[in-house]
Design brief:
Elements (H helix, E strand, L loop, with lengths): L1 H26 L33 H8 L2
Amino acid sequence: MYALIVPASTPFVLLATVMALSWWEDHILPTPPTEPPEAPAEPPFPPAAPAELPELLSVDTALTRKVAGR
């Protein structure tokens, strides 16, 4: 008989757990401040210029022919 009660009660136990965590979050955890902090007048760092990408090295055709001929 207990073998039937445990699987049948599992969804209700999970629902009760979720509801308890929701209540705990609403009543126990500290609430965030209602007023947002003031934004700084100037950004802390000026935007940096994008970095230049190095040019790709050209592949020596003689070397590739030698390796491909192995």
